[in-house]
Structures are given as structure tokens and as C-alpha cells.
What we know:
heterotrimer; A: mainly alpha; two-stranded parallel ribbon; 72% helix; flat; C: mainly alpha; 14 helices
Amino acid sequence: MTVTGGNVVSEDLAPDQSLLVDRRKLGDPVFKGFSVGSGMLILVILAAVAAFLIVQAVPAFVADAADLPYGNTWGYVAPFLFGTIWSSFLALLMAVPVAIGIALYISHFAPKQLASPVAFVVDLLAAVPSVVFGLWGINVLAPALVPIYQWLGANLGWIPLFGGNVSGTGRTMLTAAIVLAIMILPIITSLSREVFLRTPGLQEEASFALGATRWEMIGQVVLPFGRSGVVSAAMLGLGRALGETMAVAMVLSGGRNITFQLLTSNNPNTIASNIALAFPEADSHAVPQLIATGLVLFVITFVVNMAGRAITSGHGFRLAHKRAHKEG
Amino acid sequence: MAKRMELQDLNIYYGNFLAVKGVNMVIEPRAVTAFIGPSGCGKSTVLRCLDRMLELTPGGRVEGRVLLDGQDIYAPNVDPVRVRQQVGMVFQQPNPFPTMSIRDNVLAGIQLNARKMPKAHKDEIVERSLRGANLWNEVKDRLGSPGNGLSGGQQQRLCIARAIAIQPEVLLMDEPCSALDPISTLAIEDLIQELKENYTVVIVTHNMQQASRVSDKTGFFNIEGTGKPGQLIEFDLTEKIFTNPSQKDTERYITGQFG
Amino acid sequence: MTADAQPDAPLGDQYMPRMSLTAGQLPKFTDLGLLVISIAVAAALLALFGSFNLVGAILLGGPLFLVGIYALAFSVEGRRRAVNRVARYVIIGAFVLALVPLVSLLWEVISKGLPRFDWQFFTETKRNVVGEGGGAAHAIMGTLVVTGLATVFSVPVGLFTAIYLVEYGKGGPKKVITFLVDVMTGIPSIVAGLFAYALFSAVIGPSKSGLAGAVALTVLMVPYVVRNSEEIIRLVPNSLREASYALGVTRWRTIVKVVLPTSISGIVSGVILAIARIIGETAPLLVTMGFTDSMNTNALPAGGMNPMTALPVFVYYEYTRPGRPQQAYFDRAWTGALVLVLIVMILNVIGRYVAKRFAPKINR
Lengths: 328, 259, 364
């Protein structure tokens, strides 16, 4: 392997040694090896997560229901699955409008000096550990909500959602969902804020120049532009809510009761919360079944997160496409 | 339709920085007024004062008076939104709303005011505005397709159609052709000639030939140096500015000695 | 000029009436005054029903205010400006609404955590403590050990993966790894715990240990490290790399001597923020580490069961399984929560500070 680039290379000279690949210098291949190896390790870890969960969970799916401590695994996980999805859905329902409001406040309403402190305050919420949220939820939020729940039960009890015996402790599905909503608020807010901030200024000006008020401009330009970004932010928030464990485990008075009622003490638990509550005391027969429920949770969050990413990248793709179109 | 605008002792600031100083001029209705000058001289800034868009820039504020048929648009109880309904604007980059169809783009402004409108009326407004912007024949078969699928020149005419759909008194154009090819530019210049029959047109342009082709009166802005405020040096009939300017700087600029 | 373009058709006037430029305007302090009145009315209403409290008054007064300001603005300023006004207050209200839980939470944690925020809490364990006294030294130590191990595991893997993604990766493999990091970000923490438990059970049989907890946290931490570092390394301008290559420096030395030093503050800050993210994790440690009241600094699963307690788990058990007197346990739980919140906040502040203070001046 010779490199001849100069203008005074004569045939009889040996190729210049300094230009040859020096086999003793292993730095490059070794360093590259570490990098590639780390990338591969990610693959291995994920494969291991899936594999070990599956291996441990298999007995729970194949064994005879009579031999399992909790009976048929699908039947066991069903109410928890319902509780997981129901609580996360409620949380999303509450968090998304508030998150959009805060994001718009930061991106389009707050004075410049105020925008980043406000963003910081919302980020602070993300920094609070979930066990602290649980402590606060069970100690402060739940008791504070009891009078409201009683009022709702007494006056709006004919609506099925508010039916049933109102819980005296406040540890209801609605309380759990509110705590979840607070916990996923920061991520939805910060992602939405990013999209709103990317709204092309030219289009905002176009709208103002047509005589739009600020709010009309937002409806005309910012929200349509940010829609898919907000949807994907909501999906990622949903992924968080589905997997949240400790806050639910502490706040929710959960069982295996499938119901849409929000204010009672008889709620479906969530998968994650059930594992956290049951695992420390579980014996070797129960563990595989709990791991099996964990596998179900893994699959659901995986699907939701992927849906969120797909929407984001689709969005990015469309933007790039548009730009290319304009320049072309 | 078409109102006179009068600028009186206009000082424009960005924060504490005085960007444009002491502008006085009268912009006649049913005529085209061009602002020319080297970059950074404040001609676009002055333009953005005329529909109160300037205050959307953080720190932007105005001293002095801008009269629209005698009424000061900077008076304390004036609603900037209403000013912008009477003073329309077309921007340097064509900026149709990408999430809307051609038809919805045209209707964007008018629907802010009238949410419920019979379809026949909408159709009429769309057609009239697009005809007014010389775009109807090119797009009448695809009114439902997205506005940003058009060529650059068509997009700019769509923006003009969108601006005239709300029937403004004054139409401001901020270098409307600088992002366009020569043929599209000609189409817009022809359109400007037609628009002046019904509107007061103010156009900012980099291009002196364009100013001399389309405008009736021309204002020349200049700046003494960086950090200094821009000023209106000379304002007169276009013909006079380009043939016999009274100021030395104007002459140097139009003969291409700087800028 | 076509005849149609004559804009004197009556249609436009019908929809765009030639309004005067001036509009009715609410006096300057109407909003503030109305807000005060609304809250006062709400407070009075609540007091009437005998359930007065400030938060309730604000939560009830807010909607009252919105309705009032809409009606006022509608009558004086017209529909469009009224909608605009209300929209602005709804949006500000969303922020205030988010402040309520944050302030309440911080207040509770601080006021309830302070009574036991003493020397004893940080120096003693709970070994043989029944009722009052004792501390969380063992739990704090447990958190330090487990988080430290997780950091030691994740930083090299995460950093090298980031280097791979920015400097070496291309095409399919790069896309796959990026995708997998995304997947990993979404793993619920309890699932990471189950994985670590399953892994150790498969290798050495059922066991509880700090090491298993550290593995679980590593699974959660790696994607954060990758994301944060990747973002920062990508910011290093290519001109710097090319300048280095032009001097005949090899690729890996360029990365080590030019790229990493340029982005080191960002990487350090990213790692600190990643630690802040995982240090409060409870669920995975609950499943993997077991629980003990004693000091244990040995993370290895020696003899299967070698439980270790981390601070979040300590908080959880003190609160959910109190002995008597209950209050002593609750107090310890709240103090633990306070310490946890403090640690996370301090890490966040340090992380942000490092990123700002030591950021290299890259001319771009």
C-alpha cells in the first residue's frame, strides 16, 4: 500500500515509511472498538431485558392456572391492565390542556425576562422523585380532595363516573390520576414549548398583519404548526404515566375491581403499582406471574413510545420535505 | 377606499437605540410610494410603523404621529388589530399559511371577523381577491390544494390576494420581489400598477429600477454610519428623484456610488 | 384590470365593516380589580358553606373572574378582544394551576421534614431502633453506593455510545442504535428492576443486593447519558476536527484531545443531570435490593440475600409500614423526602451551573 502524491517520486526509492499505516499504533482501532462495542452493548442490554423477562415469565403463561398462586395470568393481569390504561388516560386528559397552556405562556405570552424562570419552575416539578409525589399525594392532596369528592358524589352521583360510595380517605382513581397528571406535566410542557418556539416568525407576522389578535394568531398559525408535536409529546407523557409506579402505589387504594367510577375506594390497581406492592413479599411461585405482568407493561409502553416517536419523526420528515420543496 | 397617510416627526426606537429619526412625509392615496436606500437605513422599519407591526418586535416603540386620513394610529385608544385590518402588509418572503388550502389562505383574514359566512359569499370573495392578485386563472382548478405548493411568485401573489381580501385602505409591501425570479417580479410589478387604482401602496425595495418603474413618489433613506439613526433624506416625485435629485447623497446613491 | 377586481362590491363591507380605529377599552386596572373581587366573592361563598380555605377561594375565584372579564370585555371591547383577553388569562391560569402542587409539595416537604433534619438523621442507622430516634445513614450510604455503581457502569457505556453515534456511526447500524436508545428511554423503571432481578435469579438464583439495584439503575441511566452527551458532542464544530486532522493527528486522539475537551462541561453536566434523574428512583430498588435497617456497604450478592436500603425505599417503608409511635416513622419519612428533594435540586443546580460556567466559547 503506497501513497504517491508528491511530484518528485522516483522509482528506485522505497515508499516513504511515514505514510504507511503503522500497525503498532493500535489507538484508532481500539478506540473505535470501544465505541462500536458500547453501541452493541445497548443492543445486548435491551435484548437481555426482553429475554430475561420472557424466560422468567414463561412459566406464568404456560403453567396450569390451578398451579399458579394468582390463577390464570391473563385473568390476573386484566384488571391491572385496565387500571393502568384508565389512570393514564385520565392523567393525560388533565395534563395536556394545562401543558399546552403553560407552553404557550412560555413561548408566546410571557415577557422575555419571565419565560425562562417559568420554564425552570415547571422543570422543577420533573425533578421531584416519585416517592415524594406519593407522600404528598396521600398526605396532602387526597385529604384535601375529600370534601370535593363528597360534594361531587352527593350532587353529581347520578353520573356513572361519580357514582358508588365516595371514599373517605380520598385515595381514589381520580386522585391517582391527578398526581400522575402533575408528574407528566413537565415533559409534555417542555416538548410542546419546543415545537411552539419553532413556529416560523414569518407566518406569525402574516397572521398579525391580517389583523389577528394574539390568540387568533395562535389558533391560525401556532397550534396547526405544533399539532403533531403536541400529539407526540402527549404520547411520551402517556408512556411515563403508564410506567409510573411509586406515586400510584402510595396514593391509590387499589384492588382488582374493574370500574370507571372515580371516587370510590374500590379501584383497579395499575400493573406497575401492583408489582411494587406484591413483589417484596412474593414467593418463588408468585414472582414469575408478577414478572409476566411486567412484560405486558413493557410491551404497552414500548408501543406507545414508538407511536410517539413515529409521529415526531414523521413531523420532522414533513418539515424537511417542505423545506426541500421550497428551495427546489 | 384608499386613505392618505401622514408621518409627523417620527422617531423609532429599538429599546434605547434610536433606529430612525425625524421622518415627515405624506403618502398619497391611489398612488405608489417607494422607499429606497442602502441596507440598514431603516426603510423597512418605517414601513412596519405604518401598520403597528413594529411593536411586535421586542423593544420596538414609536414617537411622533402617523395619521391615517387624519387619525393618529398611535393614539392611546386605538386598537392595533383594527389598524392592521385597514393597513395590509405583504412580506419579503412569501408566507402563505402552510396548513391551509389556497382558498382558506385567502379567507384567513376575513374569517377572523365573520366566522359564519354563506359559501356563496366566500366563493365570491375568494374569486375577487384572486382575480385582484392576477392569480385566479392559475389556481381556480385547485383552490383546495395547500398554499405552499405554488411557485414562489404565485405564493407571493397569493399573499397579496390574502391581504386585499380584507379590503384594506393601504397596502404595504416589504421588498415583495426580492425572493422572486425576474418573470415573477414582472408579474408582481404589473400587479402593483393595477393595485394603485384602488389602494394606497407603499413599497420598500432594494432595486432602484423597480422603484423607478412602479412608483409615483420615492423616499430616499440613508444612514450616516453604523450606530447612527436612519433618516429620510429626500422625498419627491419619482421622476425628480431619479433625474434631478436635490440632495447630493441621493444622487450618489441612485448613480450607484454607494449602497 | 378585470371588472371583478373592483373592490366596491358590497360583500366585503358586509363582513369587514369600516370600523373606526379606536375601540372601547377597559380601564387599566379593571382586570386586577375584578380578580380581587372574584376571589373575595369566592372566599365569601366558601365561608358561607363553612369550608373556607385560600386555595379553594383561588380555584373557585379563577373561573368566576374569567366569566366576569369576558362579559365585561365583550360589552366594551367586542367579541374578538374579549376572547383574546380570556385566552390570555386561561393560559396564565394554567401556569398558576401548575404552581399550586409545586408550592404545596415543597412547603409540606420542608415543614414536615425539618423536625428530624438533625445530626442524628445523617449519622445513625435504624438498627435496633423502635419508635423515635435513629436515622437514615444506612439509606443515604445505600443510595451513594448504588448510584455510584450505576454511574460507573453507565458513563463509559453511554459516553462511548454517544461517540459512536456522532463520530463513527452511519447508515443502518446508527439508526438501529438510535432507535434502541429511544426504546430504552421508555422502559418503565419497575420493568428495569424486574429485569435486574430476573438476570440475577438466572445467574445465581433468587437474590437481593445493591449490585442488582445498580444494574437496574444502569439500564435507566444509560439512555440519559447517551442523549445528553450525543447532543453536546454534536455541537463541536467540524472545523475543529478538520483542523486537528490537518495537523496529522489520528482520529481517536482528535476525539480525546479536541472533541471531548471542547464538550467536557456539557458531558459532565449531562452526567450530573442523569444522576439527578435516577437518584430518586424507588420502584426498581424495591424489587432488587430488599430492605434492611443496618448499614451495608457491600453491594455484592454474597450468599444470595444481601439487602441494602436506598433513601427512596427508606422513605417508602417508613411511611407505609410505621411502628409505634407512628409519628416518629412519618417524621423520618418526611425528612428522607426532604433530603432526597434537596439532593436532586442541588444536582440540578450544579448540572446547570457546570454547563453554563465552563462552556467553551465555540464560535459558530
